[in-house]
Amino acid sequence: MILLRRLLGDVLRRQRQRQGRTLREVSASARVSLGYLSEVERGQKEASSELLSAICDALDVRMSEVMREVSDELSLAELAQSAASEVAAVPVRSMLETVTHVPGTRVTIKPPQAEAVDVVAA
Protein backbone atom coordinates (compact mmCIF):
# COMPACT_ATOMS: atom_id res chain seq x y z
CA MET A 1 0.00 0.00 0.00
CA ILE A 2 1.29 3.45 -0.91
CA LEU A 3 1.15 5.95 1.95
CA LEU A 4 0.90 9.57 0.92
CA ARG A 5 2.32 10.73 4.25
CA ARG A 6 5.51 8.72 3.61
CA LEU A 7 5.97 10.20 0.16
CA LEU A 8 5.37 13.70 1.51
CA GLY A 9 7.84 13.13 4.34
CA ASP A 10 10.48 11.88 1.92
CA VAL A 11 10.07 14.95 -0.29
CA LEU A 12 10.25 17.34 2.67
CA ARG A 13 13.37 15.61 4.01
CA ARG A 14 15.10 15.80 0.61
CA GLN A 15 14.22 19.50 0.31
CA ARG A 16 15.73 20.15 3.75
CA GLN A 17 18.84 18.08 3.05
CA ARG A 18 19.41 19.77 -0.33
CA GLN A 19 19.64 23.03 1.59
CA GLY A 20 22.05 21.52 4.11
CA ARG A 21 19.72 22.39 6.98
CA THR A 22 19.06 20.49 10.17
CA LEU A 23 15.71 19.41 11.58
CA ARG A 24 16.32 21.82 14.44
CA GLU A 25 16.76 24.81 12.10
CA VAL A 26 13.65 24.05 10.07
CA SER A 27 11.50 23.22 13.10
CA ALA A 28 12.46 26.53 14.75
CA SER A 29 11.74 28.49 11.58
CA ALA A 30 8.41 26.70 11.01
CA ARG A 31 7.52 26.94 14.73
CA VAL A 32 6.92 23.19 14.88
CA SER A 33 8.38 20.90 17.50
CA LEU A 34 11.51 19.06 16.44
CA GLY A 35 9.95 15.68 17.28
CA TYR A 36 6.78 16.37 15.30
CA LEU A 37 8.72 17.52 12.22
CA SER A 38 10.85 14.39 12.48
CA GLU A 39 7.71 12.22 12.57
CA VAL A 40 6.29 14.05 9.53
CA GLU A 41 9.53 13.46 7.60
CA ARG A 42 9.47 9.76 8.52
CA GLY A 43 5.84 9.46 7.39
CA GLN A 44 4.59 8.66 10.87
CA LYS A 45 2.38 11.75 11.21
CA GLU A 46 0.01 13.40 8.76
CA ALA A 47 0.82 17.06 8.10
CA SER A 48 -2.17 19.41 8.10
CA SER A 49 -2.30 22.00 5.33
CA GLU A 50 -1.35 24.68 7.88
CA LEU A 51 1.64 22.69 9.08
CA LEU A 52 2.71 21.90 5.53
CA SER A 53 2.47 25.59 4.64
CA ALA A 54 4.67 26.52 7.64
CA ILE A 55 7.27 23.88 6.72
CA CYS A 56 7.32 24.99 3.08
CA ASP A 57 7.73 28.63 4.18
CA ALA A 58 10.59 27.61 6.47
CA LEU A 59 12.22 25.76 3.56
CA ASP A 60 11.51 28.70 1.22
CA VAL A 61 9.87 26.36 -1.30
CA ARG A 62 6.42 26.60 -2.84
CA MET A 63 3.89 24.08 -1.59
CA SER A 64 2.90 23.44 -5.21
CA GLU A 65 6.49 22.33 -5.95
CA VAL A 66 6.44 19.95 -3.00
CA MET A 67 3.05 18.56 -4.03
CA ARG A 68 4.19 18.18 -7.65
CA GLU A 69 7.18 16.15 -6.52
CA VAL A 70 4.93 14.05 -4.27
CA SER A 71 2.55 13.53 -7.21
CA ASP A 72 5.40 12.41 -9.47
CA GLU A 73 6.61 9.93 -6.85
CA LEU A 74 3.07 8.67 -6.31
CA SER A 75 2.71 8.03 -10.05
CA LEU A 76 5.97 6.06 -10.09
CA ALA A 77 4.97 4.08 -7.01
CA GLU A 78 1.59 3.24 -8.56
CA LEU A 79 3.26 2.08 -11.78
CA ALA A 80 5.73 -0.06 -9.85
CA GLN A 81 2.93 -1.53 -7.73
CA SER A 82 0.84 -2.25 -10.82
CA ALA A 83 3.75 -3.90 -12.65
CA ALA A 84 4.59 -6.01 -9.60
CA SER A 85 1.01 -7.25 -9.26
CA GLU A 86 0.86 -8.09 -12.99
CA VAL A 87 4.07 -10.11 -12.78
CA ALA A 88 2.89 -11.83 -9.59
CA ALA A 89 -0.35 -12.83 -11.33
CA VAL A 90 1.52 -14.79 -14.04
CA PRO A 91 2.73 -18.20 -12.85
CA VAL A 92 6.50 -18.43 -13.28
CA ARG A 93 6.20 -21.85 -14.91
CA SER A 94 4.11 -20.40 -17.73
CA MET A 95 6.76 -17.71 -18.37
CA LEU A 96 9.57 -20.16 -18.96
CA GLU A 97 10.24 -22.51 -21.78
CA THR A 98 13.03 -24.98 -21.13
CA VAL A 99 16.03 -23.26 -19.56
CA THR A 100 19.36 -24.97 -19.12
CA HIS A 101 21.45 -23.29 -16.45
CA VAL A 102 25.05 -22.80 -17.49
CA PRO A 103 27.02 -20.72 -14.95
CA GLY A 104 28.12 -17.35 -16.30
CA THR A 105 25.66 -17.35 -19.23
CA ARG A 106 22.92 -14.88 -20.02
CA VAL A 107 19.38 -16.26 -20.08
CA THR A 108 16.48 -14.42 -21.71
CA ILE A 109 13.09 -14.97 -20.11
CA LYS A 110 10.11 -13.92 -22.19
CA PRO A 111 6.96 -13.43 -20.13
CA PRO A 112 3.71 -13.54 -22.09
CA GLN A 113 2.71 -10.18 -23.61
CA ALA A 114 5.78 -8.42 -22.30
CA GLU A 115 9.26 -7.47 -23.43
CA ALA A 116 12.13 -9.84 -22.81
CA VAL A 117 13.78 -9.69 -19.41
CA ASP A 118 17.53 -10.33 -19.25
CA VAL A 119 18.72 -12.40 -16.32
CA VAL A 120 22.42 -12.91 -15.73
CA ALA A 121 23.16 -16.25 -14.12
CA ALA A 122 25.86 -16.24 -11.46
UniProtKB/TrEMBL annotation:
It comes from the Bacteria. The keyword DNA-binding applies. SUPFAM superfamilies: lambda repressor-like DNA-binding domains. Pfam families: HTH_3. CDD domains: HTH_XRE. SMART domains: HTH_XRE (SM00530). Keywords: DNA-binding. InterPro entries: Cro/C1-type_HTH (IPR001387), Lambda_DNA-bd_dom_sf (IPR010982), TransReg_Diox_bact_type (IPR050807). Residues 12-66 form the HTH cro/C1-type domain. This is Helix-turn-helix transcriptional regulator. It comes from Streptantibioticus rubrisoli. The lineage of its organism: Bacteria, Bacillati, Actinomycetota, Actinomycetes, Kitasatosporales.
